[in-house]
Amino acid sequence: MEEILLVEVSRRVATVTLNRPAVRNALNGALRRALPTAMESLDRDESVDVIILTGADPAFCAGVDLKELGGGSGGDEGEIRELIEGGNPFGPVSKPVIGAINGVAVTGGFELALNCDFLIASERASFADTHARVGIQPGWGLTVLLPQAVGVRRAREMSTTGNFVDARTAMEWGLVNRVVAHDDLLRTSGALAADIVSNDQAGVRRILRTYAEAAAITTAPARRLEAEVSVEWLRSGGGRPEEVERRRKAIIERGRMQVG
């Protein structure tokens, strides 16, 4: 059986690859559990200074596995609530996390990208917030992190339309740091990781912690609010499995038309 999460460590840099390419690396229950476990292990690993997070081609991550959720096997409310209240898809990490976005990053996959420290995008990358199209609410910080990246008006546009934003537009908007040729994505991300490795690591981690602490002064209540809304939405009947499944099929077709 193929591993759903690949981890490779070289020269103090860990590359973590979501490995469900047949379903665009959708986050089923097993992958949602495996990712934070792997990230926590790497955060403790003294041989690792930087983590690169990417997906097996052709996608970065299509978000929570809607087929599983639509079939009613995506976890009970307690499990989903625990995941949402955890704050982000991979848990607290003290080391820099570079998102190497190799393809589409959609909904929960978009949130996964937003929780990285910064993003390098392949020319094939694209981004969409389709929570409203699915009929669910974000719970991993999108309503806080997306406005921080692109501004509140562009964030509102993405969330209310569900439209895809291509890599070049994402860079113009400040969502990603740079766009590179697809075949150069991991090489460029690795070179930036090597630059980070060459610094004093205690200093790097203290700076990242200071960024997080400063952001928490204003954003922690907003993230708690988002999590509460997401859980309450589920409890009140939002995101019913049969409706999620119906919308999932429509989103796939719409995405094909927009991304090409």
In a few lines, what is going on in this structure?
The chain is α/β, with parallel strands linked by helices and 260 residues long.
CATH class of one domain: Alpha Beta
How many beta-strand elements?
Answer: 9
Global geometry: globular
Main pleated-sheet profile: 6 strands, mixed
Structural topology:
Layout: E1 5-10, E2 13-18, H1 29-44, E3 50-55, H2 66-70, H3 77-85, E4 97-101, E5 104-106, H4 108-114, E6 118-122, E7 126-128, H5 131-134, H6 142-150, H7 152-161, E8 165-166, H8 167-173, E9 178-180, H9 185-197, H10 201-235, H11 241-259
Parallel strand pairs: 2-3, 3-4, 4-6, 5-7, 6-9
Antiparallel strand pairs: 1-2, 7-8
Helix pairs in contact: 3-10, 6-7
Task: Describe it.
With 260 residues, the protein is of the alpha/beta class. The chain has a domain of 179 residues: 2-enoyl-CoA Hydratase, Chain A, domain 1, CATH 3.90.226. The chain is 52% helix and 15% strand. It contains eleven helices and nine strands. The strands form two sheets. It has a six-stranded mixed β-sheet, sandwiched between helices. α1 links the parallel β2 and β3. α3 packs antiparallel against α10 and α6 crosses α7. The model has no long low-confidence stretch (mean pLDDT 90).
